[in-house]
Write a structure and sequence with these properties.
This protein is mainly α and 167 residues long. The chain has helices at 3-14, 27-34, 36-70, 72-80, 85-117, 130-156, 160-166.
Length: 167
């Protein structure tokens, strides 16, 4: 005899003809169904986070690539005057990190306001948890440093002789 039959017969014994047990499901299925809406929202938020990270990386890379392209002559002259490639590399990466710091500071105020509206989605985290904000800022700084690396390497490899010939 399966569980559904046992439950139906027990219900019939308690209240004969009083009510019928028509739909039964395991508790795990009921809990999973009740959490489906929250799970969807969290997946959506996760996708937005991934999109934000990708946009930040592409934006920083694009901005620094354009800057390196525009400043090729300046970088070539600096290298002709004795600037080491590591100095050029650090300068370009520093610009990328500087852009990221400005973005973090400009985004901090709206983020503090938005977390108050998202308190129902937060589980085990305070709305304005400093550790979470610090971790996200560190993640974006890491992304900025990584996205700056390619244009910085290109800038550090600029040949001063070729640059001066073009000018």
């Amino acid at each position: 005899m399966d569980i559904a039959t046992s439950v139906r017969s027990a219900a019939a014994d308690i209240a004969p003809g009083g009510f019928a047990v028509t739909e039964m499901q395991p508790m795990e299925a009921l809990v999973a169904c009740s959490k489906a809406g929250m799970r969807f929202v969290l997946i959506l938020v996760g996708l937005f986070i991934v999109l934000a990270v990708l946009l930040a990386a592409v934006g920083i890379y694009g901005a620094l690539s354009a800057v390196v392209g525009q400043r090729t002559a300046e970088i070539g002259v600096l290298m002709a005057l004795g600037a080491q490639p590591t100095v050029i590399f650090r300068r370009v990466v520093g610009q990328g990190i500087g852009l990221c710091v400005i973005g973090i500071l400009l985004g901090l105020v709206p983020a503090l306001g938005l977390t108050r509206g998202m308190t129902s989605l937060l589980v085990g985290v305070e709305p304005n948890d400093p550790a979470t904000f610090a971790a996200v800022a560190a993640l974006f700084l890491f992304i900025a440093a990584a996205a700056s690396g390619i244009p910085a390497r290109r800038a550090a490899r600029i040949s001063p002789a070729e640059t001066l010939r073009k000018e």
